[in-house]
Amino acid sequence: MKYTDLRIGSTVNYKGKIHNIDASDFDQLEYDIEDGIITAVPITEELLIERGFETQEDVNRCDYELDNSLVVIGINKDTTDTGVEFDCFLFRQPLGTIKYVHQLENLYLLTGEELKVK
């Protein structure tokens, strides 16, 4: 994780607890990441559902969709040798593969809204 990927409100793991970055964190942010005090939070099915995504399951995969009435964000869960990855789609166009909550929050910000826990 790079400190330039984070912004106020980004969800991170700070000393073992879920934390949202605030303005006071930015003085030490780069150093805290280098020292492992702040780490990325992996996306989990539970975190997607907490943020309003709905499950669309079929035989071969589990998809998640979030519809904010302007944009539908689709997430396809893909298990690889390196763990679970999520392919992200906006208007059915691929945006790329993400693994961490702050990446999802940054993509969702393209809708003009913050991704919030429901």
Keywords summarizing the entry:
3-stranded antiparallel sheet, alpha+beta, 118 residues, 17% helix, 3 helices, 37% strand, globular
Q: What does this protein look like?
A:
- This protein has 118 residues and is α+β, with helices and mostly antiparallel strands.
- It has helices spanning 29-34, 45-50, 101-108; strands at residues 11-14, 17-20, 38-40, 54-57, 62-67, 72-80, 83-90, 93-98.
- The chain has two domains: 3-40, no CATH class; 45-111, no CATH class.
- The chain contains three helices and eight strands; from the N terminus they run ββαβαβββββα.
- The strands form two sheets. It has a five-stranded antiparallel sheet with strand order 4-5-6-7-8, with helices on one face. A three-stranded antiparallel sheet has the order 2-1-3.
- Helices cover 17% and strands 37% of the residues.
- The model has no long low-confidence stretch (mean pLDDT 79).
- Strand 4 and strand 5 (62-67) form a beta hairpin.
